[in-house]
Design brief:
Two copies of one chain form a homodimer. Chain A has a two-stranded antiparallel sheet. In chain A, 75% of the residues lie in helices and 1% in strands. The longest helix of chain A is centred in the middle third of the chain and has 33 residues, at 137-169. With 375 residues, chain A is an all-alpha fold. Chain A has a single domain (5-371), classed as Farnesyl Diphosphate Synthase (Orthogonal Bundle), CATH 1.10.600. The interface between A and B is large, with 57 and 57 residues.
C-alpha cells in the first residue's frame, strides 16, 4: 500500500477537482503574465507544472472532513458552498507550494519528487541558452543559479499573495472570515518560525537539542499540513469551537507523526519511492530527531565526520545510515511516531468527543495510511 | 530643500501617526514571537528598527490625498474611518518593506540608508557570537550570511502576509474590498514582474534594451509606490472610477520620474544624502536607463570594463561616473524625468479633470519636492 490511501483511493475525483481549480488559476495567471514578457509567463507555466505533480493531501483532507461533518450532522450550517470550499482547499495547496518554494531557495535544493523543482527547471532551461558576458564557467553557473533562485523566491511571493487573496475574496460572514484569517496567520507564523528554528540549528545560530528539534518539526510542517485543513474543515462546515479545537489537536498529533516519518523516510526510505536525493538530509546536515538522538549515543563518533559533508559519497552515506539504525535512533523515532498516533486515536475515541463518527473514521483511516506510508 | 517637502513639513504629525501604528504592530508581533524562542522575537525587533527608519512616503501620500478629497468634496462617502485609513496606509509601508527585504536577499545587499539593513543587522549580531563547528573563516562567514539572508527572506514572507491580513480584516463593503484587493494584486504582480525583469537583464537571461529598462522601472517601483497609494486614496474616499483612474495615471508618471531620479541619485548623488554605497549600482552591474543610453554611445568602451566589477575601486567608479555624464546619459535621463513630470502636470490641469483642486495641489507640491530631491 502506498501513500495516503484514504485521500487517494477514496478521493481520486476530489483530487482531480482540486487539480482543475489549480490549473484554472495558473492558466489565468500565465495568460495575464504575457503582457510582462515571455520569461515571466514561462515562470508561471513552470510553477503550474510543479504544483500539479503534488499529492494534494492537504486540500483533500479539508474537503473530506468538511463533507464528513455535513453527512453526519445535517443540521450544520456551512459557511460556504461547494465551489467556495474547493477554492479555499486549493489555496491550502498553494500555501504548501509557497513554503516549498522558499524552503528550496533557503536550502539550495534543485530536486523534488524525482524531478527538478521550480528552481531546477529554470536552471535547466537557462543552461540550454547560450550567453556571452561571463568569463568563467563557474561565474556563468553562479549567475544562472542566481536567476533560477530569484524565480523561486519571486514565485513564492506571488503564490503566498494568491493564498491570501483567495481567502480575502471569498463571500464569508465577517466572523468566519476573521476566524479563517486567524487560522491562516497562526499557520504561517508557525511554519516560518519552524523554518527559522530549523535553519538556525543547521547554521549553528541556535543550540540544538531534541526538544527544539521536535518543536521545529511541529511548527514547520504539522500546523499548516494538518491543523490548518482539519480546523478549517470544522470552521467552514459550521461546527462548535470545541469541535474545531479538538480537530486542531488531532491535527497537531498527526502532523508531528507525519513529519517524523518524513525524516525517517528520507534517511531510511527507498529513493524510488520518495524521489529525493537519498542522502540529502545527511549531506545538508539537516537536524532531525534522528540526529538529535544519535548525538547522545557513542555511535555519533562514526556519523559526525560525514554529517553535513556536501561531498558525501554513497559509501559514507550507507555507513552513516547503518550507524543511525544501530544506535537506536531509528527505533526511537518510530516510538515517537507511535506515541503521537496513539494520542490522536485516544483523542477521537473519547466518549466526550465533540467529533462525529464519520469524522473519526476519516482520521482513523488517515492514521492507517500514514502507518503504511512509504513516500 | 531635502526630501519630499509636501509629505514632510506638512505632515510630521501624520508621519508619527503611521509610525505609531507600525510600532504597535511590531510590538505585538515581537511579544507573540517570544513563545517561539528569543531568536525569532529578535528577528521581529530588528525588523521594527529597520521599518521605522523609513520616510513613510507611501502611507503619507495615501492619507494626504484621501483628506484632500474629503476637504474638497464634502459629499464623498468614505469607505473607512480615520483609524482604518491609518491601518491601511501602514500596510502600504509594510508592502514596501516586504519588497525591500526580498530585493536585498536577491541582490545580496547588506546596507540601506547609511546603516545595515535587516540582513546586515542579523549578520552583525551573528558575528558577535562565537561558534565552533566550522573549519575555515570563509565557511563560517558563508554560514552566517546564509542565516542572515534566511532571516530577511522569512521576515519578508511574514510582512507580506501581514499586508494582506490588514486589508482582508478591514470592515469594508464587499465591493470596496474586492477593488482594493484587485489594486493590491495588480501592485504586487507589477512589482514582482519588474524585479524579475530587472534580475533577468542583470543575469543575462533577458535581452537589455532601453524600452525594457523603462518598463522595468515602471513596474518595479512606480506602481506600488505611487499608483497604489493614489488610487487607494480615491477608492477609499469614495470617488468615481474616473477619478481613480486619473489618479492612477498621474501615479504612473510620478512613479517613473521618481524611479529614474533614484537611478540618477545613486550614481551622481551625494553619498551623505542617500546613504547607499556610492558605486553599488555600478558594482552590481545594475541595468538602468542611464546605462542603457550609455551603451549606445562611444563612451561605453570606457565604462564596460568596470561595469559589474564587484571589486570596483573608487578611482574606477569616479571615472565611470564622469563617462556616464559626458556621454549624455545623465542629461538624457533628466529629460525623461522632466517629460514624465510634464505629463503628470498636464493631466491634473486639464479642464475636464475629475480631480478636485486640492488633490491637484497635493500632486503639484509632490512634483515640486520631487524636482528638488537629493535622497
Amino acid at each position: 500500500m502506498t501513500g495516503h490511501t484514504v485521500l487517494r483511493d477514496g478521493t481520486a475525483a476530489l483530487r482531480r477537482e482540486i487539480e482543475d481549480e489549480l490549473s484554472s488559476f495558473f492558466a489565468a495567471r500565465t495568460s495575464a503574465a504575457q503582457v510582462y514578457g515571455p520569461e515571466f509567463a514561462r515562470l508561471w507555466e513552470l510553477a503550474a507544472e510543479s504544483v500539479l505533480g503534488g499529492k494534494m493531501l492537504r486540500p483533500c483532507l479539508l474537503v473530506t472532513v468538511f463533507e464528513a461533518f455535513l453527512e453526519d450532522r445535517a443540521s450544520s450550517s456551512p459557511e460556504c458552498d461547494r465551489e467556495g470550499l474547493v477554492r479555499l482547499a486549493s489555496a491550502i495547496e498553494l500555501l504548501h507550494f509557497a513554503f516549498l518554494l522558499h524552503d528550496d531557495v533557503i536550502d539550495g535544493d534543485l530536486m523534488r519528487r524525482h524531478r527538478p523543482n521550480l528552481i531546477g527547471s529554470i536552471l535547466e532551461e537557462s543552461a540550454a541558452s547560450p550567453r556571452s558576458r561571463r568569463t568563467s564557467v563557474e561565474a556563468e553557473q553562479d549567475v544562472r543559479l542566481h536567476w533560477a533562485r530569484t524565480g523561486g523566491l519571486l514565485m513564492g511571493d506571488l503564490v503566498l499573495s494568491a493564498v491570501h487573496q483567495t481567502i480575502a475574496r471569498e463571500r464569508l460572514s465577517h466572523d468566519a472570515r476573521l476566524s479563517l484569517l486567524d487560522l491562516l496567520d497562526h499557520s504561517i507564523v508557525d511554519s516560518v518560525a519552524g523554518e527559522h528554528l530549523d535553519v538556525g540549528m543547521s547554521d549553528g545560530a541556535i543550540r540544538i537539542d531534541l526538544r527544539r528539534i521536535l518543536t521545529m518539526s511541529q511548527l514547520k510542517t504539522a500546523t499548516y499540513s494538518f491543523e490548518l485543513p482539519l480546523r478549517a474543515a470544522a470552521l467552514l462546515s459550521g461546527q462548535s469551537r470545541e469541535a474545531q479545537e479538538q480537530l486542531a489537536e488531532a491535527g497537531r498529533h498527526l502532523g508531528l507523526a507525519f513529519q517524523l516519518q518524513d525524516d525517517l523516510l528520507s534517511v531510511f526510505g527507498q529513493h524510488e519511492d520518495h524521489g529525493k536525493d537519498p542522502f540529502s538530509d545527511l549531506r545538508e546536515g539537516k537536524e532531525t530527531a534522528i540526529i538529535a538522538y544519535a548525538r547522545m549515543t557513542s555511535s555519533w563518533a562514526r556519523i559526525e565526520p560525514v554529517f553535513g559533508a556536501s561531498d558525501l559519497s554513497e559509501g559514507d552515506g550507507l555507513t552513516a545510515r547503518a550507524a543511525l539504525s544501530e544506535c537506536g535512533a531509528e527505533r526511537f523515532v518510530r516510538f515517537l511516531i507511535a506515541d503521537e498516533i496513539d494520542a490522536c486515536l485516544q483523542l477521537i475515541s473519547r466518549p466526550e468527543s465533540a467529533l462525529p463518527e464519520r469524522v473519526g473514521d476519516v482520521l482513523r483511516s488517515l492514521v492507517s495510511s500514514l502507518e503504511h506510508r512509504r513516500a
